[in-house]
Design goal:
The structure is a single chain. By secondary structure, this protein is mostly beta strands. The chain has no helices and 8 strands. 0% of the residues lie in helices and 38% in strands. The chain has a 6-stranded antiparallel beta sheet with strand order 6-7-1-2-5-8, with no helix packed on it. The chain has a two-stranded antiparallel sheet with strand order 3-4. The mean pLDDT is 82.
Length: 102
């Protein structure tokens, strides 16, 4: 598996729906890029001056579901084997998705 460096995060995008609620199939060319996914690997953290801020301090761990920017200059889409991933910088992560019901 790929290990990101610095303040980068490796995310497996969530699959998008291939059919609308009314039963119309969406072709690959018309699908929007995923904006959420699961963190599968983390770099060592982000330096703020002399201080290292780790991902755990930000609440991000492997397995965390995150929402990320749809378009970013620093995001890289990569393929490892048959699986597709996105490498993001921490600034591209918009939030953490909490699926816990209260």
């Amino acid at each position: 598996m790929l290990k990101p460096i610095g303040d980068r995060v490796l995310v497996k995008p969530a699959p998008k729906e291939e059919m609308t609620a009314s039963g119309i199939f969406i072709p690959d060319t018309a699908k929007e890029k995923a904006q959420e996914g699961e963190v599968v690997a983390l770099g060592h953290g982000h330096y703020n001056g002399d201080t290292l801020t780790t991902f755990q301090e930000m609440g991000i761990e492997i397995g965390t579901r995150v929402m990320f920017k749809k378009h970013s200059f620093s995001a890289e889409e990569i393929k490892i084997g048959s699986e597709e991933f996105v490498i993001l910088e921490t600034q591209d992560i918009l939030g953490i998705i909490d699926n816990k019901k209260k």
